[in-house]
Write a structure and sequence with these properties.
This protein is of the alpha+beta class and 179 residues long. It has an eight-stranded antiparallel barrel. The N terminus is likely disordered.
Length: 179
């Protein structure tokens, strides 16, 4: 019995050494995720022409955004942007996919970035809150070639204005990431 136990222990010991050797010799795998080049939070003011109403119509939206930012790769700590988009919109529950925006950001360190957002969607909830999600690529300037993601939330619009004269402007929050 003792000899059988010794052979079993020897086999297990040899297997254990091979496993440990494999752990030592095996290449180290590094995480592939990288930190964002830029993360910004801010506010936006949008102007609608013609004003948003309960009737779907083509609306030119212009916006001005101001940001407070954090960057691990640059001295960017704040910035601003302005731009616009033209989409069929209304005050009611809708989802409008598609659309393209070109937005130029001006940073506090005297640099800038131009982003081509080639996927812009506007989703308006039943309470009138709009969420505009934009993804694209930094085409020039700071963080060129990064993927840019921008999410704007415009809180509930005035139901009375939507049903009558329309909503000509609104303010909300915005988040921006360059990765």
């Amino acid at each position: 019995m003792r000899k059988h136990w010794s052979r079993t222990a020897a086999r297990c010991g040899a297997a254990g050494i091979l496993v440990l050797a494999g752990l030592v010799v095996a290449p180290q795998v590094q995480a592939s995720a990288r930190a964002a080049d830029l993360v910004c939070l801010g506010n936006t003011t949008e102007t609608y022409n013609p004003p948003l109403t309960n009737t779907t119509q083509v609306v030119a939206t212009s916006f001005v955004e101001n940001y407070s930012c954090t960057s691990l790769t640059s001295s960017v700590s704040s910035g601003s942007a302005s731009g616009g988009r033209v989409l069929s919109q209304n005050c009611l529950l809708t989802a409008t996919p598609g659309g393209v925006e070109v937005v130029t950001y001006v940073w506090n360190n005297q640099t800038g970035s131009t982003v081509v957002y080639d996927n812009v969607s506007v989703v308006r909830a039943a309470n009138g809150t709009a969420t505009i999600t934009s993804t694209g690529t930094v085409a020039s300037g700071y963080a060129v070639s990064d993927t840019a993601t921008r999410v704007v939330v415009i809180p509930q619009l005035s139901l009375t204005a939507c049903a009558t004269t329309g909503v000509s402007s609104a303010t909300g929050t915005t988040a921006l990431t360059f990765l």
